[in-house]
Amino acid sequence: MASKYAAGYRGILRELRKSLDPSRKVNTDIKSHFRAVVENARQHPSDQALVDLDNTILFLKSQREHKRLLERYNPLHDLTEPERLKATANRVGLNMPKLHSDPLGQPIFASPDTIVVLKTAAHQLNTLHRTVVFPTETVYGLGAVATNAEAAAKIFATKSRPADNPLIVHVSSLEMLETLLPPGYEYTKAYRALIKHFWPGALTLLFPRNSDIIPNIITAGQASVAIRMPSHPVARALIAVSNSPLAAPSANTSGKPSPTKAEHVARDLSGKVPIIIDGGACGVGLESTVVDGLHEDGNIRVLRPGGITVEQIRQALEEEYQGGESVPKVLVHKRDYQDEEMEAAPTTPGMKYVHYSPAVPVTLLSTLSNPPSGTTRQPVRSFLRQISATRPHPPKIGVLAPSDSGIWKEIVACEGPSWHRFALGPISNPSLSAKRLFDGLLTLEAEGVDFILIEEIAETHEGLAVMNRVRKAAGEMVWLDYV
């Protein structure tokens, strides 16, 4: 019996040695701990004690194998041409609540792997003038140095993006922002309020363009430039390490849904980008809100709804304007005002071209908004049976809808099609619907559905941004009713 315990102890020491670099020795305190555990088991022998020893060895072996696999798939290993960097969520510091800096403003990293990954990416950006895919809190971005026209041109080529579709510039600090603005520029009170409340975060502001710094290609020749400071620690750290503002639209072929996971990017742009930094799923899931506060009337115009809601913007302005001051109005493009001239020559992305469309047809199921005059609502069940009969049989139909929608019960009652379900979250939680929308579109597309049905949600809070994307993605709209 004693020899079995001795063998167990030797097995533990063997696994501990294998887990270390050959130049290092096992810590004596750890050795003493395991020796005491084994000695106690020897003095009180039992079958369970031997099982516990075997499980200890198995655990140490599993830990060693886990470490080996992490190193094997570390993004710094096996870089090929074109290089593709994939950094795991833990390695890129996603647990940091904010970007920590030293007194000189340089980011502080908990892991040495993180800084090496970011310096490798920065080399691609600054020295080779190539693009890099990186995570933000909104969607994954395809970045290039914003002050370099040659580098920015590679964004347009990679995405097949129209040249008159401007880019958003990303900065890591207010100091970097100020280097991009015209000399002597002063923030308006409204902009100071929005920056105070929402930066870093999913809010983009239009500023006057300094033509000596920002190339024409970034703004599509417009007199303003869209700039934001992302809150994602990896995005801000990459910008800080690069010491360069990054122009970065979503990292997808132009017109397709924006990627919210690294695998979305890999499926779409594989072979077209040198580096993908994998930071896990994006927390917001929709692009940033774009605001224009440059008009003489002082009002805030929301050109593109996004991760920061109109309600949040309005509340922030009301908090900052006190003592009878006139609070700027918050106007939403196409809801509160029209600007045909800007739509023809947009100052921000997402205003002119078809966007967010997967490779299969999308139909919007309107169950909330009023139908056009003369249009009668159709029962949901009748519509589902109709499309089941008229499509190639049996069709594969993708459905995106709130998790507590009545459509799921109707689907169960409609036999024949192969239903592919993707719940957007409860009706009461539009922020979750925002986070899951693009993932749902891309997931259903990857599952090979013939077409996708998306149910309408209320256009309040994040629902405004969700429906902005859905209406652009949908090629057809039908008005339905639950009866």
From TrEMBL:
Residues 115-308 form the YrdC-like domain. PROSITE patterns: YRDC. It is found in: Cytoplasm. It catalyses: L-threonine + hydrogencarbonate + ATP = L-threonylcarbamoyladenylate + diphosphate + H2O. Keywords: ATP-binding, Cytoplasm, Nucleotide-binding, Nucleotidyltransferase, Transferase, tRNA processing. GO terms for biological process: regulation of translational fidelity; tRNA threonylcarbamoyladenosine modification. Pfam families: Complex1_LYR_2, Sua5_C, Sua5_yciO_yrdC. InterPro entries: DHBP_synth_RibB-like_a/b_dom (IPR017945), Sua5-like_dom (IPR006070), Sua5/YwlC_C (IPR038385), Sua5_C (IPR005145), TC-AMP_synthase_SUA5 (IPR050156). It is an enzyme of class 2 (transferase). Its EC number is 2.7.7.87. One of its GO terms (molecular function) is ATP binding. It comes from the Eukaryota. One of its GO terms (cellular component) is cytoplasm. NCBIfam families: L-threonylcarbamoyladenylate synthase (TIGR00057). PANTHER family: SUA5, THREONYLCARBAMOYL-AMP SYNTHASE. Belongs to the SUA5 family. Required for the formation of a threonylcarbamoyl group on adenosine at position 37 (t(6)A37) in tRNAs that read codons beginning with adenine. Likely catalyzes the conversion of L-threonine, HCO(3)(-)/CO(2) and ATP to give threonylcarbamoyl-AMP (TC-AMP) as the acyladenylate intermediate, with the release of diphosphate. Required for normal translation, by ensuring translation fidelity at the level of codon recognition, appropriate translation initiation selection and maintenance of reading frame. Also involved in telomere replication. This is Threonylcarbamoyl-AMP synthase.
